[in-house]
User: What shape does this take?
Amino acid sequence: MAHILIVEDEDKMRHLLSIMLSRKGYRVDQAGDGIEALEMIRATPFDMVITDIKMPRMDGMELLEKIKEMEIPCPVVFITAFATVESAVEAMRQGVVDYITKPFEEDRILLTVERTLGLSKIMAENIELKRELRDVAGTDEMVYVSKEMASVVDLGLKVARTDATVLIYGESGTGKEFMARVIHHASPRKGSRFVPVNCAAISPSLVESELFGYEKGSFTGADRRSTGKFEFAKGGTLFLDEVGDLPNDAQAKFLRALQEKKIQRVGGNEEIPVNVRVICATNQDLDALIEKGEFRQDLFFRINVFPIHMPPLRERTGDIIPLTNHFLNRYAGSTSIQVTDGAKRLLAEYAWPGNVRELANAMERAVILTGDRGFITADTLSFLRTFPPTGSGDTDLRLPPVGISMESLEKDLVKQALDVTSNNQTAAARLLGLTRSKFRVLMKRLENKGS
Assistant: This one.
């Protein structure tokens, strides 16, 4: 049943609306002003908000603006005693779905709620599409001609029809999240949310509360119940990127959630059923992590039901020029820019350690460097020669007679590796032949010397 938030500073009016909607089977929460409502909206995925306009601390207009800024797919209905044509027009212009005046009729409220909830799903899909087009690693659409990618896409479409857990392997920038989105949108769950979580970007102490939520008072600062990603993704797909970075405690709870289809919020005892499809991704060697005791073998067996390997760009060189043209269309806009044969040879021979993401960045940079000349040449792409094109690790570095500064060389290599991989430390470490932990030690040592 739909979950509705009522925001109203008048207690009597707020409770009246709550009773009215609860009688119809809706799940209803209440907030006394916009600030309280905003905290609740951040923690809980509401299907719609009914809010007064005139309120202390934060009024309805400001609350609406905050919801839009956060790109939360939650339609808003205004209800106010100050009904004028001007305020109604302004409210609709700002993005409010409907507008009801006080005193109101119950039938009018129920009709508005029913109509608004029909828009809620459409709004969620539109916002998800915008995020996908902007954030997906690689391209706005699946661009390929190689048999390697055709095979991967075929696997993705086959498993999409099932509810099987998928584990996507691949280097940074190969499009693992994009493939997860393809699977979601080709699945029966496409009408519900796709919820991505980057496990490497979450502090280890916060992973469990991020995934499973927490109860009020479960730790310092937990002043209200918060919904985790498992609950937020109800009916849809939960995508866990960099799953190899999950701490051991979180791995155990994650395994239980997969096995039992139930979770417990941090600090809670209630077992909450979860209906989600789980897709995981990693750029690490999970077998090696298992041998070192850093990843649970039983969890590996549970998530490795249907493995998909995303090939690096150097293994599907036939896609480089089609992708190049795609990114040129994106970044050059209406400007006509051609790629010379020499530039195409350089693009085809380059190792692309940062994969499709690096190619996208390279084309954006090349368009800027080209300016009004209309041609991208090999000279335009000279910045790609930082690393050897073969990817073999051999270099033509020769020690000059006057010697070098080892510290400066290390700093320069670290900076170049981070630049090429868009600051992905795991990929940068791989470029330098280091483990991620050794790479971090190197970075810390260089930072300490610089301070």
Summary: The chain has a mean pLDDT of 83.
